[in-house]
Amino acid sequence: ETGVTQSPTHLIKTRGQQVTLRCSSQSGHNTVSWYQQALGQGPQFIFQYYREEENGRGNFPPRFSGLQFPNYSSELNVNALELDDSALYLCASSPPQPGTVTGEQYFGPGTRLTVT
Amino acid sequence: AQSVTQPDIHITVSEGASLELRCNYSYGATPYLFWYVQSPGQGLQLLLKYFSGDTLVQGIKGFEAEFKRSQSSFNLRKPSVHWSDAAEYFCAVGAGYSSASKIIFGSGTRLSIRP
Q1: What are phi and psi of B65, to 5 degrees?
Q2: Where does the pLDDT of residue A98 fall: very low under 50, low under 70, confident under 90, or very high at 90 and above?
């Protein structure tokens, strides 16, 4: 069984540029969540995608956007990059859950984004 | 608002010694609680979870955690640590939001092992 994979591993961008990060969910998982982890901090929830629609969002500006595809893979797009966007971006997938149960999430290795 | 507090930023224990990492949460309903471990430069690995039932839950790598509702705590324990346990440990609470299932993380406790 393949786990959650993310690409690229590392990325260096300049302030003002745009970036796209990619995530492939674990087999059988239909929900993908994205988190930002700044150095020395815990991950912060950005948003979640379920059945190709955004299904919850954290306290992040609209320049953070995403997509989920029919195969449940996902992209995180960040426009107008700022220096504070430098962080480890983690993708997590979840298996189908009944109702509003919060299930466990399985994380990928992350993409390290550096904005200069 | 939901929150998680890990009061210890950094803990050092000797190899073979017992370990307890503290976690307190704030959540209005019955929480779903998790402990994750993160090795340097890596993603997060789920150690254990509590959803309901027995308040003492067993996880991988010999870890266990006890849910204490009266204290709003979910402390992680291990009877004998190994050098390979050195990592960052995150306590987290599942916060239902419509049908979303975001997880709120604490700020982490860094565990160092003394030979």
Answers
A1: -145, 150
A2: low
pLDDT band at B52 (very low <50, low <70, confident <90, very high): confident
The one-character DSSP state at A83 is G
Task: Please judge whether B32 and A44 are an interchain contact, meaning their C-beta atoms are less than 8 angstroms apart.
Answer: no
Q: Which residues of B touch A59 (CB under 8 A)?
A: none
Contacts of B45 in chain A (CB under 8 A): 107
Alpha-carbon span B108 to B5, nearest angstrom: 9
Q: What is the pLDDT of residue B32?
A: 86
Token pair recorded at residue B97 = 């939001």
- Cβ burial of A1 (10 Å; 0-12, 13-18, 19+) is exposed
- pLDDT recorded at residue B73: 95
Measure the CA–CA gap between A77 and A64, rounded to whole angstroms.
6
Task: Centre a 10 Å sphere on the Cβ of residue B107 and count the other Cβ atoms it contains.
Answer: 15
- Rounded to the nearest angstrom, the minimum Cα separation between A11 and chain B is 14
Residues of B in contact with A105 (CB under 8 A): 46, 101, 103
A4-48 confidence digits (pLDDT tens): 999 999 999 999 999 999 999 988 888 899 999 999 899 999 999
Q: Is B43 on the interface with A (CB under 8 A)?
A: yes
The pLDDT value given to residue B99: 43
